[in-house]
Sequence to fold (85 residues):
Amino acid sequence: MNPIEKATTDFLVQEFLGGDAGGRLTPQTPLMAAGILDSLGAIMLVEFIESHFGVRIEAHEADAEHMGTIERIVRLVEGKKAAGA
Fold:
């Protein structure tokens, strides 16, 4: 597990799953469809990503296409870090 995946998973487990994922959370789990995130949770996740990884998430990136799974979040953050954003 890379550091972005680990930190994001840990955040989601602590904030939204009461500290126990119980096997419910994988890199491919659809975060909203699985009931892990709602719209307020998505805002909290964006704030976490921006502060923890030092990247800026644009409004159009805060959607399921870019942040619907941990796997997509990792790709988004890695792309932004590579681009220096």
About this structure: The two ends are 23 Å apart (CA to CA). The mean pLDDT is 93. The longest helix spans residues 39-53. The chain has four helices and no strands.
